[in-house]
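Let's do one together. I've listed all components of the complex below, 898 residues spread over three lines.
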Amino acid sequence: MSNRRSPMIGLVVLTILLVLMIPLRVLIDRAPDGSLGFAWPEASYASFRWMALAGGMVVGVALGVSGGLLQSMLRNPLASPYILGVSSGAGLGIMVGLYLASIGRVTMHSTFETIPAVLGALVVLGLVYAFGRRDRRLDPVTVILIGVVISTMCGAGMMLLQSLVPAGLRGEFLRWLMGRIPEALPMSTLMICTAITGIGLIWSIRIGRAMDVAVLPDDECQTAGVSIAQLRTLQFVLAGMLAAVAVTIAGPIGFVGLIAPHTARLLVGPTHRPRIIGAALAGAVLVIGSDVARQVIDLGHGRLPIGIFTALIGGPVFLWLLLSGRAE
Amino acid sequence: MGRCFVFATAGTMRAMSVHRRCLRPTAAMAILLTATWVIGLSACNRPESSAKTAPDVVRIVSLSPALTRTMVDLEIQDLLVGRSRFCDAVDQDIPAVGDLFDIDYERLTRLQPTHVVIQPAASGIAPELQSLSKRQGWTVQAWPLNTIDDVRTMTSELAQGVAARLPDRHDAITNRASALDAALQRAATPLDGNVRTLVLQGLDPVLAAGTSTYVDELLRAAGGVNAVSAVGWAELSLEDVVRLNPEVIIVLHTGQITEDAWNATALATLSCDAVRNDRIDLIASDAAMLPSSALATLLDPFQRAVGGSVSVP
Amino acid sequence: MTIALTASNVTVRFGSTIALRRVSASCARGATTVILGPNGAGKTTLLRCLVGSLRPDEGNVTLPGGERVHALSPAKLARHVAFHGQSRPMRTDLTVRQIVELGQFAVGRSIERVESVLDAFDLAGAAEQAFRTLSAGNQQRALLARAVAQLQADGVLVLDEPFATLDVAHVQRVVQVIRELRDDGQSIILTTHRFDLAHALADDVWLMRDGGIVAAGTASEVLRPERLDVVFGVPFQRVTTPSGAEWWQPASTSAAP
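Okay, and this is what the predicted structure of the assembly comes out as:
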């Protein structure tokens, strides 16, 4: 398999893909009449393309790294950022916000649904952390079970509230579930999210070698010099924070957090340091690539939601990587 | 967002203490990211020229299917230069600019609207849209549409705003608006009726209009009494329907429910007055799906379903 | 005798079950200590306490300087004990060499050490293979090699069932490695169910039953038939090899290698 290959090759491939996506996203020009071309954007709307690029990069990196951290921490290849319940927590937060707004007729002055989303995500993360511990440390199986249970409960809460809000608000919420790429974020929000994502990425790379050691059984990991309790807490906090950033600005974009770390594993190899960098790159490539695709594909109703493309593009590419890797 | 800062600083502090080993690929990533940022962000936040359109030009982008539908009723759909993905009451060649959650800001800007009209989310108008509109000189008009009175207000304000800017069409638009307003007013004025009516919008599961819905208002204006006392839309069991024992059942649909389809449902064999007396009305109209001025068109079919309805013993 | 690790009054409870009751013992520096006992006697629990990964409910495990092992930072602990636990399935694509290198995470990298350990465990040829593609026995050798690569001059090597999945030839290999380490003055603690290997390796034997040490001393002192019958609940018989070595072995199993 990929073991004898240098991790650099995979990283270079992913970097090239990312660098190719940037001019595509900036230069593809969709005129309002639907015609496509290549053109440098005019000043009045150039910022939206740059912001979509920046936002897509932040969301992709955050989801990729978050997924990578969780797959290591939970020792589970199916783990994704949403297994911690971040998205359902944020979703429930939004539903509660919508509900309160609908009964109180209040208007929440926020970046759309940001604050209830952040609150919901953090509350759920706190609960999963509090209940996911066993023997003074986070236990992978317990965390997964608690995450699933709390997600399900949040899901039930969402359905409950959804049957309470006026019909008109339901569509609004369903729409949130499909995700978006932020194009006109306030600069302060983007900067905060970029900072958190940057810190999360660098910190995750720093603990890369410890994550390698953590493939060993717990006791051996502990005696080999890595505090498994501290490492898991750190992974949990970093992964949760990154997922919360992504969910807050983009809604729950599916698939990226699951596929990006696997793609990195298949292309870059098993050691965690390059793998985390690879997951960050793969996440950014997938999100920006999907955003490029939706600029081009218009079925007559304008751009389609980003979540459709991350799954439709990410899925087959991932299957191909997985199957061709197995054949080797 | 304050709490994010707390996270960030706590993060840096702890980063100092845990595992210090240097890394080269990170540097490359960092440079790449920073470069993109610097180039990209230098393009953002540049003050934009405001709309260069003449004062008597009206270019409307509607982000709400209900508003779009109302524009059709006001016969001003020719002023529409952009629509939401869900606006299907107008020519589908009019460019779509996403939806309220994911606005296609680039296309919106390129359409150079004078007005952006929306039905706001519960959480208000997105600040991004507000600040962009201020920069670009667009007028953002938002109307919450929960009741028929809300729809009346929206219809007349929308008409007035447009009419004021188009002197040569002023009379035509205001005439249309007053006709619609009269119809809507009728649809919002309750009659002293007593026909217990169930209005369904879905059959499996059974979804019924409760009180404080615009359908309930229509029903009361048609002389009916809502059999459901719950607030908002309510999912009912078949047992509930039997026990509510409505005299009339109205089924609102967009054309997919035929007489045969109805007869194939369990509802068609329920033991209740409406079924026994064959007082079932299938109303095919998409007007009921949106809080637009077209709601007024439902009053007649509702009256027909309810009225003449001295219930057969 | 100098001491490598001391357990004093170590008690461990798992809920209402008492896994270890007031166990006190010291293992000597430069010697091999073999822990024998039936399933559920508390061998693994004792090892986990000795390496500091399980904190006793009562009592302490201390280093000669008096430091309690469970209170050491992982980086310090790694210099004092190197542990190989009972293997659990690990699905990692890391190569055998990378696995062995993990042993040196906290103790400083030495490429020569990794090479010599790979050689000692007959893994040089498989060094670039992905761990998860190996057979169970080869995986166990890779994990043993990792623990040995971590072992420091004054550290203790603690091995839980190191022979469990190995074939005959590799059992001999591992026995050889353990002997050489001991001859170099290293301290080793291991558990096994193989009486022949206990005899062959042990300077000291701890016989455990029901969460306590019932006897400790040299192999010939501890492994008496009357005691073994009681502890293990099966009759034992004497075995003598052509070379003259002799030990007691459960009567039901056939004799000598």
